[in-house]
């Protein structure tokens, strides 16, 4: 392989490449980091730094980097049939086999897959198809979606509208009409004197209040991430989702679980819904379905919803050129085969997650950490100015950014949202790597605390 001319790449990047979710002007001055290789839980950058990737790319490289079988599955499929679509009464074998495989894996009767290319498109898909589901049953006014403030459902117009990120709404005139938001379940900031379980019920009943305010005949669906990822790994109390499910059933509001992060083992179960013991009517998935090796997303519908969409007859006026792309489906099938045969989800839950939780709790003892939260293989450290109090730094994000950069200097990738340090390693993390993660994170916390005085 020819050596990389990093300064030239950085120059080209600054001139020609707009990065997502970046301050592009600042990045152009500083120079982007170029990643060149990955193996297991590590990536290497163009300067030769070896980094423990405790964020699995973007919550997605569940089986770890460098699994050649996935590349081989893609190559085999490309050589045999690189592309065909699922329009025009056609499809391909891997597409069908993946739909069937997902029906077997997903909880309950989520037996019907609509394929897209990303989590955002999956959420666009459910907005349209759920509204269509109600409209064809003579309920066109039952079209409102309720999401949560600070929820993240992607970046397309519908996805960003369903999400509750204020900064995203401000760019591009969102949300679109008929989308409402309730406050998220975040006991650390919002729970007051309530126990976490009591607070879970209070937070869930905000949905009931909102449905009654809007009218149950107007509300089509509630959408939520089982564990809210991007905003800071908000792990709701166990009481929360059961109560949400009860409310959805009572008012005939469809329950949509956005499992783009939680799906495929992140919480220790195959799906986050199983961790919380709920049965969604609709589910959106992406990321871990291919361990991020190739883009793929899907919306899964239960028998009731898919039955109506099929029985109504006529054309389903929705779809993308790459819906059910055979190469993406072949890679997903190989990824899922590896996950099943190597018992990756069970091993993570039974052997790694308990040890990770123990060491994460030790990090929670650091004077900079106000709360260490973790479920399965995802967690957060909430950095605070005063350990005894559940309060944030006045200028949110500065300390988190400093801690992230310090961790990176020690060879550890953690993400910071405001002052929450986020954890989401590949599920194949070993106990030795948990120790390495702990040592590097502890150093980063110590140096950050020292730097802020
Ligand atoms: N939903 C959730 C919960 C996510 O975290 C994300 C991305 O991080 C998305 C949807 C959007 O997925 P994508 O970036 O593949 O469009």
TrEMBL record:
Leader sequence residues: none
Superkingdom to which the source organism belongs: Bacteria
InterPro entries from the UniProt entry: Aminotrans_3, Aminotrans_3_PPA_site, PyrdxlP-dep_Trfase, PyrdxlP-dep_Trfase_major, PyrdxlP-dep_Trfase_small
Keyword Transferase: yes
Keywords on record: Aminotransferase, Pyridoxal phosphate, Transferase
Stored PROSITE patterns: AA_TRANSFER_CLASS_3
Coiled-coil region list: none
Cellular component GO terms, alphabetical: cytosol
Pfam families with a match to the protein in the record: Aminotran_3 (PF00202)
GO molecular function annotation: pyridoxal phosphate binding; transaminase activity
UniProt cofactor(s): pyridoxal 5'-phosphate
NCBIfam families: PRK07480.1 (NF005682)
Similarity comment: family membership: Belongs to the class-III pyridoxal-phosphate-dependent aminotransferase family.
Name of this protein: Aminotransferase class-III
Organism: Pseudoxanthomonas suwonensis (strain 11-1)
């Amino acid at each position: 392989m020819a050596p990389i001319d990093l300064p030239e790449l950085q120059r080209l990047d600054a001139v020609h490449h707009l990065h997502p979710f970046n301050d592009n002007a600042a990045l152009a001055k500083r120079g982007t980091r170029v990643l060149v290789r990955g193996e297991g839980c590590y990536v290497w950058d163009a300067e030769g730094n070896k980094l423990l990737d405790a964020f699995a790319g973007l919550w997605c490289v569940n089986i770890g980097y460098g699994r050649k079988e996935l590349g081989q599955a893609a190559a085999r499929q490309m050589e045999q049939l690189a592309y065909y679509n699922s329009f025009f009464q056609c499809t391909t074998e891997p597409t069908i086999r993946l739909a069937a495989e997902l029906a077997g894996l997903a909880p309950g009767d989520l037996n019907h897959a609509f394929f897209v290319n990303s989590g955002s498109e999956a959420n666009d898909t459910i907005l349209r198809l759920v509204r269509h589901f109600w409209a064809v049953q003579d309920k066109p006014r039952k079209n409102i979606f309720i999401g949560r403030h600070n929820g993240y459902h992607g970046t397309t117009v519908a996805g960003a509208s369903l999400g509750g990120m204020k900064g995203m709404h401000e760019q591009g005139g969102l949300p679109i009409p008929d989308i409402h938001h309730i406050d998220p379940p975040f006991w650390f900031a919002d729970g007051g004197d309530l126990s976490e379980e009591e607070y879970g019920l209070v937070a869930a009943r905000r949905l009931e209040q909102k449905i009654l305010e809007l009218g149950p005949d107007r509300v089509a669906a509630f959408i939520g991430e089982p564990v809210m990822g991007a905003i800071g790994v908000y792990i709701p109390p166990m009481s929360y989702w059961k109560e949400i499910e009860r409310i959805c059933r009572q008012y005939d509001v469809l329950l949509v679980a956005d499992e783009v992060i939680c799906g495929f083992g992140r919480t220790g179960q195959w799906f986050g819904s199983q961790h919380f013991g709920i049965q969604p009517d609709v589910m959106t998935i992406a990321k871990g379905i291919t361990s991020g090796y190739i883009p793929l997303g899907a919306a899964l519908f239960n028998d009731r919803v898919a039955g109506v969409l099929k029985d109504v007859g006529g054309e389903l006026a929705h779809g993308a050129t790459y819906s059910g792309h055979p190469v993406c489906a072949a890679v997903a099938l190989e990824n899922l085969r590896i996950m099943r045969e190597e018992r990756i989800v069970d091993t993570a839950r039974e052997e790694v997650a308990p040890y990770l939780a123990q060491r994460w709790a030790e990090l929670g003892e650091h004077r900079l950490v106000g709360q260490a939260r973790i479920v399965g293989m995802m967690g957060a450290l909430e950095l605070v100015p005063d350990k005894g109090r559940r309060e944030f730094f006045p200028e949110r994000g500065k300390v988190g950014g400093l801690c992230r950069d310090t961790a990176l200097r020690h060879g550890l990738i953690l993400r910071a949202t405001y002052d929450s340090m986020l954890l989401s390693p590949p599920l194949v993390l070993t106990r030795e790597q948990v120790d390495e993660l702990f040592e590097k994170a502890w150093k980063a916390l110590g140096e950050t605390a020292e730097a802020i005085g």
